[in-house]
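Quick one, probably user error.
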């Protein structure tokens, strides 16, 4: 897994890539099931989907969550699936939540019959302007690395056990 975070003009971009030992079909099916978001999120965030349950993702879908962003602070989060290309890409964008702006691209590329490259590009802006960047920049960066490191392990173990 590789993780890279860059920033410019108050906009941050996190790029994560991971090779998964499974077919693109199986990896895609895992990722487009919103119910799997719970297992991909560290337990201390107490992540809960609050929208009606769905086992599929589609363009225009609105998904709502409740999440603990700080030890004593929960917030509601609303995302919309704005792009969807079967076994290739889907994009979710925050409509309401803790970031001033968040755009998350999920890319899937077939390496061979039993190996898939999963790439995430998360572009975000923190709230509270310069103060948000100064106080939250390093904290959020560290937290995102922790979340994607956790996610990497979950994905590795899921496809190791299942396949």
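Nope, works fine. Designed sequence:
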């Amino acid at each position: 897994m590789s993780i890279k975070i860059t920033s410019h003009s108050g906009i941050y971009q996190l790029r994560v890539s991971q090779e998964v030992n499974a077919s693109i079909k199986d990896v895609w099916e895992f990722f487009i099931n919103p119910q799997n978001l719970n297992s991909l999120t560290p337990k201390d965030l107490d992540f809960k989907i609050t929208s009606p349950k769905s086992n599929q993702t589609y363009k225009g879908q609105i998904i709502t969550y409740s999440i603990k962003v700080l030890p004593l602070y929960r917030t509601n989060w609303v995302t919309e699936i704005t792009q969807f290309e079967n076994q290739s890409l889907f994009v979710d964008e925050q409509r309401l939540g803790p970031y001033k702006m968040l755009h998350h691209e999920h890319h899937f590329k077939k390496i061979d019959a039993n190996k898939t490259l999963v790439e995430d590009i998360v572009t975000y802006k923190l709230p509270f302007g310069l103060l948000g960047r100064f106080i939250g920049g390093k904290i959020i960066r560290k937290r995102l690395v922790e979340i994607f490191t956790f996610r990497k392990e979950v994905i590795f173990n899921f496809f190791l056990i299942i396949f």
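The helical segments are 24-31, 37-40, 129-162.
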